[in-house]
Amino acid sequence: MKSILLHTGNDRFFESRLQAALDLARFTGGHLECVQTRRIPAFLGPDSIGYSGSGVMMVQLLEDEARLAADEREALQARLDGEGVPFSFSEGMGEPGQTLVGRSLLADAVVMTLPPENQTDLRHALATAVTHGDAPVLAIPHQLSRLELEKPVLIAWKQTPEAAHAVKRAVPLLQKCSRIEIVTIDPGGGGDFPPLAAASYLSRHGIKAELHERTAGSGTTSDQLLGTALELGAGLIVMGGYGRGRTMEFLLGGVTRRLLAVSTLPLLMAH
User: Fold this and answer.
1) CA angle at 222 for the pair 219 and 223, rounded to the nearest 5°
2) Which of 17, 68, 169, 185 has the highest CB neighbour number within 10 Å of its CB?
3) Which one of 3.40.1000.10, 3.30.460.40, 3.40.640.10, 3.40.50.620 gives the CATH number of domain 3-141?
4) What is the pLDDT of residues 32-63, one digit of tens each?
5) CB atoms within 10 A of CB 193
């Protein structure tokens, strides 16, 4: 993963995802692209039409946004100058998730926050980037201080296109990791792509993986996954995101939604 997008911002969760992005860049020898997302001021909507002086106010609001972005960029650049990681800046105006989707076309990973449930803007941006982006999203729990890639990586395997996409896109990272654990919960029988098929695919890339089967029992698949990750000492979970679609996940629940709410481990997700 040589091209790493970092969702910058002045939110209180930025520090954890910055540290994770630096850890990932150092681990892979990658380049950090800091993506600034500037929102279009709400004033520029239809309610502004017909008001005297609206053009002047529009220009002022845009200039204020540009100044804030420049100050943020200057402060972050001063900090990154001493980190020993190559970096650059890019920016876009609009909804953050869509900006990151656009920049993901020439990226290997997007580093974002795994926010609490009450942070609706960040959660929406994360879901947009996972379901529409062209690179896997590394979602970092807001309380995390570093990305522990020296620990085992757990692959949450299910016979779905989303899980397969996550594994394929994680290959460059998995090739550098020391232990890979493939975990299935209540696997059942049949299907074209059982866990062994995933392990065989990885082996062709020089990656050895151990297989584990677990049952959810009276609990949930997501809780069993987290429990197994802790049991195996994992530092990262690779998984498909939003297998039933975002609307169905919201209405009915789902592994993705549950893990977004409770995971203390970073999630590398693809759709």
Assistant:
1) 50
2) 17
3) 3.40.50.620
4) 999 998 766 554 555 545 544 566 776 777 67
5) 16
